Amino acid sequence: MGTLEKIIQIYNLTDDDISNLASLKDLAKKNANSFVEELHKFISNFDNYSKFLSSEEIKNRHKEKLKLWFLDLFNAQFNEDYLRKIKKIGEVHAQIGLPSHYVSATMNFIRSFLHSIVLENYDVYHRQEELKLSIDKILDINLDIMTSSYIDENQFYVAKSKIETNIVRL
Questions:
Q1: Burial status of residue 136 (CB atoms within 10 A of its CB: 0-12, 13-18, 19 or more)
Q2: Total structural domains in the chain?
Q3: What CA–CA distance (Å, rounded) separates 50 from 136?
Q4: Does residue 5 or residue 165 have the better pLDDT?
Q5: Residue 159 and residue 165 in contact, taking contact as beta carbons nearer than 8 Å
Q6: Closest CA to 31 of 160, 141, 119, 161
Q7: What integer is the mean pLDDT of 20-37?
Q8: Distance (Å, rounded) from C-alpha 25 to C-alpha 15?
């Protein structure tokens, strides 16, 4: 994976996109609790949900971290620290064995949630489309960074020993 600057360039996240995301900050704060609750309802339908979120303490900690991540999408502070935070989220998901398609499905849910908020709060079609495009870019960047952790984690695991590599190949 490259630097965040390179990723931003690849996804063409412009200053206008960053401004669009920042303009949604108050709306995100207003909807943050609803976001966390609806997302948890969504992920509770995944197989092995209780394996990954096994206690109320873990669920509550997950909700707090989700809320922070959600609000960070609109802080317009996309720097190397941001890259490290998102990479760490992906690494934790990979380490606990969370299937990567759960991450992708969850990101799709988040995209729909945010699009619906934009549609509910903005009447002008052109503005809705601008905001949704900016949201899509930052979510795709996040998904890219998170899922790259799965690739890195798998490469690290396979490289641990020759015997393990042969078992995985078999």
A1: middle
A2: 1
A3: 29
A4: 5
A5: yes
A6: 119
A7: 98
A8: 16
DSSP letter for 73, please. T
Residues ≥6 apart with Cβ < 8 Å to 75? 22, 25
For the chain, the maximum distance between any two Cα atoms, rounded to a whole number of angstroms, is: 60
Highest mean pLDDT among 47-56, 77-86, 90-99, 137-146 belongs to: 137-146
* DSSP assigned state of 77: -
One-letter amino acid at 138 equals: I
Within 8 A by CB and 6+ apart from 138, the residues are: 13, 17, 21, 73, 78
The confidence score (pLDDT) of residue 151 equals 76
Structural domain of 47: 4-169
Q: What is the DSSP string of 92-135?
A: HHHHTT--HHHHHHHHHHHHHHHHHHHHHH---HHHHHHHHHHH
N-to-C CA span, the chain: 28
pLDDT classification of 2: cutoffs 50, 70, 90? low
pTM of the model: 0.85
Question: Given a cut of 80, is residue 153 above it in pLDDT?
Answer: no
| CATH code assigned at 47 | 1.10.490.10
pLDDT band at 163 (very low <50, low <70, confident <90, very high): low
